[in-house]
Each structure stands twice: as structure tokens, then as C-alpha cells.
Amino acid sequence: MSAVGVAEAAQAVVADEPVAEAARRRRRARRAARRRHGRRQAHRRARQPSAGSAGWTEAHVRRLFWRAGFGATPVEARRWAKRGKTATLDFVVNGPPGGAQLRGLEPRVDGRTLDPLNEWGDNVLWWLDRMVRTTYPLQEKMTLFWHDHFATSDQDTPMMLAQNRMLRRRALGSFRDLLGDVTRDPAMQLFLSLAGSTKDAPNENFARELMELFTLGTGYSERDVREAARALTGFIADWHDNGTVTIQYEADEHDDGVKTLLGRRGPFGVDDVLDLVVAHPKHAPFLVEKLWSFFVATPPSRETVRALVATYRANDLRIKPLVRAILEHPQLYRKLDAPDLVKCPVVYVAGALRTTGSHIVQGYPTWLLETMGQYPFYPPSVAGWDWGPAWMSSNSMRQRFTLGNYVVNYGRPRVRRGSAPATLTAQEAYELAWRAVAEPQVSPATRAALVHLAAHFFDDLDPDWRDKADWRGEALQATLRHLLLVCPDSQLH
Amino acid sequence: MPRSVHKGCDDFRQTSAATRDRWLSSGLTRRQALMGALGGGLTIWANQAMPFGRIFEAAQASAAEAPGARVLLSVFLPGGCDLLDTLPPIGAYGQYADLRGGMELQAPPALGTTGLGIHPSLAEGLNGGVKGLFEAGKIGFMPGIDYANPDLSHFHSRHFWETGLVTERAAPGWLGRWLDHHGSRDNPLQGLSLSSTLSPVLATASAPVAALESPNDVGLDIWGIGGQQERQMRAAWARMSDARVHGDGPEAVHTAARLAKSVGDRLAPYAEHDDVDPLAPPVAYPEDDDLGRRLSRVAALVAQPLGVRLASVDANGEFDTHDNQPTELADSLRSVSQSLAAFQADLEARGVADRVLTLVWSEFGRRPEGNESSGTDHGAGGIAWVQGTHAASGILTEYPSLTALDRDDNLKVTVDFRKVYASLIEGWLGTDANEVIPNANAYGRLALTR
Fold it and tell me: A43 partner at 20 to 30 Å CA-CA among A113, A136, A356, B3?
């Protein structure tokens, strides 16, 4: 809302009230309240674009921090707007010197520490906590990208957590190295029946997804799938008593005959197949477009794809330079006042906790993510989740609405007794709530709806004792904070 | 064009829309496979001109919510359900047993005088389960259902069934398209998906639809806020949701925000209150069975004046029985039989059975010859059925031959699923099938209702 709009809304509130002694008393009380909540001017200043770097504002920082991670706190937005675009991108892409650390309170579930290997849902909380507390959010964001890209589901937790650590280690490095580790990863091997695929009974499952979903999309034939399956034979799963699995490669079980694969002939083995698919002309554009759509809502132009493909190839298929090129692309910063990319449930939940300085204190986020349609470690299929507008349904929005209860009752935005007197104006109540939930970006329409709500929240009370109804003021604060966290604007980044 | 034949794969997990979209936009064409089907390329969607983003036809909308309006329920058995074990051909038992090499059903119960048997699991449940429903004249089986030159990929074939179009094009679901033509403009409950994300058969271009797991789990609630403040809060939500926005993402968010409130408001009177469930079923459903639980909610909501017209439910079972079919299929069909039998008894007890017709389907059938892991691989010529007091009863289509297989050793298709869709649209929903199924007349009709 513009300053004019804010003033109008405030006037509308005043005009609704009876002009009488009670009103004068209320104005006096309001002035007192204003002194108590006198951060308003600071807040006004904060909304001015920073002059720290030409064309690099707090809005740019917020956009980048949301897309590359899980949102920016007001302090981060101010600090990085001053430091400028290059410094901010360096920090976001490379992380802090010395690598990622977890800052702040350790996660708890009803007072106990997490036990991700044994307690149901703790594996999800363990990862979510990393997203909330890491000093290197892009690393977690890319781990999430790879978990979707190399979707593996419904395997034993020790294997899934081991895979998760591998994806994190490889998240921004060489794609070829990542692909090699994924191919030999026990959870993936079992999920796509690569373990046990032998020369006598080659299984095409992994070979097909390797080309269709992992590296190429198109440009291969059914014959290539069959030949790749032959070349990938030889892996055998070894089950151990503790429930873990190791993968052995047994040369006896490998088909060492000549294969014709993607236009080449030879006695190809596992690494030959991986080398051939990443060298295929379709690979770079395929991965570039997939990564782009993870970060940017509108499709890239042909020139953009060409440039990004060149970057990716010039850097020997390393991910970090490609991600950086996307993160600094002007298209990512379009419509800074009207975000257009739907947050996936994981980013929505982790972002709400991280930006408000909240932590995991209950198991609640696990089942919330499940009902929102993104239960980490259980993607619905080898194709991963459906992104973008597909996250939205009447049900998923209702589940997203309930997140507010968790954050407002157990997180830092909790309303403390005596913190929200009934004498605040509607505008003041709104701004108090807005600051308490980390100054989220909201549209003028949303702000007006919330100020209107604040203006009428006491309507059923007798005017003579409205000013003393602090309990109602606190209920209003909880409601405003909740709505700010879950409103349509907060579903987008 | 070589046809993909998946053996021993898990790719029925690949049914997500993202994959389908990638496939749909990839330019891989299945047209060669389609040519020759039904002659003259009649099935090629790309030749049809049906605009999906059509302007909503408001004039027809009001009829949809009329009390007593008919309801069509889609029940999907994911994975590709085996025809031969579901309705074993006891008239040709020797051939059946030879094909299955030891994993065949032993002495399955006979299905009347049809010459067919029925899987013993389908005799379980209230009133004799699915078998009992058949004997009571409330089920019509359609063996051999599929489409010409079937695609044996789970997600391709499922996409065809969901959209009613054998095409690479992305499209709303066939039931969603019906709502776009004949549904209400403001009642999301007209298209009810019992799931946390919307079933693709109900995806629409413009008509509102709802996804929910339980009517108890739909309210927009803030802890500690009630009465007038709750009403004001929800009014603020409505104002925020109604704001005009642009772009796919923002529009999807705002639409979902409006639908969430609408669903919550409409179902508020039916939520559990003081441990009393106003929708509690009058009959016993199987315990701890997701399919039964979802069906019980469909029955309950259909019986209320909520304007439910089309509904979609997925079974939980493992029908992709590459391994250990005797056990897996028995468990899955038991759930289906117990749940559907309870559902039918529930509808009858609530006095709404005459309004509801159920279509049970799966994306394809399975190979007649068993594999080496006591399972079967993806095949053609599957099984579907209609169920209800107004369903045509008996064996409604030709049972495929066990000796005259197609060139891939699969059963020959004896009925196109679009013939069934067209027949349901005209015979049950009472509207022109050509609006929803392109060139519907090319498929002919089956008498599926009475």
C-alpha cells in the first residue's frame, strides 16, 4: 500500500468512531501507544530502497534469498542491499567461508532431541531444520532440487539419509560426479531395480529414467534404453543384518558384449553410459531448462538457454556456475512487487520458520508437509513432484492455512501478554503484526483487507471498555500474524 | 514404431503430471500407433477443434445442482489390474492354467452361468461383496477394455484414461471437461476428489472443483478465534483471495484460496462436533482401509444437499503385480470388494442409491502368460465395471480369446474405453457425448444403465 493508501485506511478507521469524550481519551491513549511502539519511523525508512548499490534494493535481496534459499530476514535484506549485487551473489552462491553451519536452537520434538533414524517423521524434521538454520541455504535448496530430480522414494531411512548427504555433498559440483554417485547409490539402485539387473536378466527401469528423467528428456530410442540397460548390468545388493544395503559390482554379472548406444558402438560399461549421456547434445539444454524452471516462473528465451548451455559446458558440467548465471539473470528479478513463483510446501514451511526466527519444537511440520503434498523422502514417483501451480488445490491451501497456528503459537511471532494493547489503531496493530512476522511482502489489497479487519475487530464490544480489552488486542495480533503468514501473497516468492 | 514393453518395472509410480507434461511436450509422437485405430485416424485428437479455455456456459449451470441430480463416481485401480485372475475364464480353465504356469486360481467361484469365475477375494464383504452385487444385478463387467495399440507405460495409458483422449496433448480430465460444460460456476463440491491433491480426471479448464481427505479437515481455523471474530477473519481471507492477480502461479494461489474457503464454509455443518459425526456411515466399512474410508465420505456427502455430481477415488492396492501376484492381487481385490460392497449398502441405507453410478477402471490389463516371479507384466485388454442400482448387469463386452492373442502376446482389445465414457455421458449424465469425447459417435454406445 502506498503511504497515501495507509493514511486513507487510518482515516477511515478514525471516521468510523464516535466523536465524543471517549474518542478524545482514546486519542490520548493512542499517542501513548505510539510512543511505546515508536519504531514506526524506522520501519518507514526501512521500506525506502537502499542506496547502497545502484539498482540493487532490499526487494532484490528478498527475491534472491527466497529463490536461492528460504527467505530473508529484515536484517539480511537491509545488510545485503547495502553490500550490492556482486557481494550478495558471491555470498549466496558460495556460502560462508568455512562451509555451512547450523545456527540457533537445536530442533526438539516435545522436549527430546531428534532421532532421525528411528523416530517416524524425525528424518523430515532433521532436513527441515537444516533449511531453517543453515548458513548456506542454496546448498539445501539444491539438495531439494536433486531429491526431486533424482527422485527416490519409500526406501529405508538409513539409505535415504545417506542419499540425502550424498546429494548435499554433490549439490553444486560436477553433474557427472553427481550422476556417478546417484547411479551407485543404494536407495536409487533398489528403487529403480538397478541392483539385481544382470546380464541374463537386464532391467530397463534405471536405464529408461536415466535418459528420460535424469539427463536427456528426448533424443534416444527404445533400443538405446535396452542397450544402456545391458551396459549397466552387474550391480548386486548385499543386505546386512542392521537393515542397510551395500551395492557390489560383480564383473561376472555384467554384460561385456558390444552395445550400440546413442550412435556409438563398443563394449560399454557403467561409466561409459554415463559419459555418453552427459556428452549427448540434448543433455545441457535439458538440465538448463529444468534448473531454470526451479528458480524462475517464466520460461527462458532461446538466447538465454543458449547462453546458459554455453556456461554449463564451458565449466565442464559444473552446477555452481550455471546456478549463479541463473540467479543473476534479470528475468529472476521481474515483478519484484508481485512474486509469481508458487512456493513448494517445503520452502513455504522452512521459509516461515526461518524468516521469523522460529525453530522446530514439535513434530507438527512433518504431517503438515504430508498433507500439503510434499513429504520429503517420499516423492510420489520417479518423476518427483509436480511443481508450480500444481501445488495448489482447495485442500493444499487449507493445509497451508493451518501452518499459521503452529508458527504463531510455538514460534517467535507468539503474541506475548501485554504486548498488544487494545488502544492501538488499526494501522498500528497491522504494522506490529507485520514486523512480528519478518515484514513479508504483501500486496496493497492484502494490507487493506487486514487493516479493515483490525478496524472492526472490536465492533461487538461496548465502546466504554474497548480500550481495556487487551485480550482482544492480543487475539487480533494472533489473527493478523497468522493471516500474514498464510495469505495468498505468502504462497508466492 | 517399436512399442515399449515394460517388464518387471516399477514405472506405475511415474504417473505424476510433471512427467506427463514433459512427455507431452517432448514431441514423441504416438500417432503412428494410433493410425489404423478405428480407421481414418478418427482418434487423433490433434485433428479436433475443441477449445479448452472456453467461456463458461452459465446458462446450463443451474441444472447441475438440482436436488436428485445423478452422480457419477470414478474408482481407479492404479497399476493395471489383471483380467484373467479377476474374472478367470473357467470355461477355458486349461488354457488359463497353462498360461499362468502354477500361479492360477484354484477352483475359483463361478459367476452364475456366464462361463466365467470370479476372484475369491471379490466375494468378500457385505452381502457377498462384488460377487454378491453381480448376482443382485448391480454390476456389469467389461472384460477386454482398452484402446487400439495400447501403450504399456503406466503414465501414458493412465493419462489417456484420465483425459479420455489418446493423445500427447495436455488436457483437462474427461470428467472435468463435463463440468466445464455442465457444471456450476461457484460450487467446488460438484467435482469431488477424495485426495489431498486433485485427481486428474477432475481437472477442469474453468469450473471449480475440490480435493479433500475428510470433511472434518477443511475449515480455515485459527486457534482461539471464534464467533464474530472468526467470521471477520474469514471475510478478510475472502477479500485477500478475491484480489485480481495475473500469471499462472498467482492465479492458481488465489483460486485455491477461494476454493478452500468455499469448501470449508459449505462443509462446516457436517464436521464432527462433540464426538458426534453427522456423516457417520450407517453400515460397517472394512477397518483401516483407505478406499473404504474415502468411499464412505463420498456416500455421506452425496446424500447431503451439496450438489456433488462427479467424484473420484483411488484404490490403495498394488495392482501392478509383477511379483507375487497371488498374494498381492488377493489383498488388493479384497479391499476393493469389501469397500465397494459397503459403499453400495451405505448408499441404499441413505436412500440415494438410485442416483449414483460407479465406474471402476484401471489403466491397462496384464500379459496372459505369467512371468518368472509369480507375477504378470503389463498387457492389454483389462477389466472395468459399472456398479449401481441402475447399472446394466451381466458381462457387457466380449471376453478376449486366450488363444488368439495380439502380436505381442497380449489379449486382444474388445471394447474401447471411450465407448464406455460416451455411453456414460449420454446414458447416465444425459448430455451429448461429443462435447466431451471428440468424435464420440465413432465409438458407438453400450447400454451401461437401465
Answer: A136
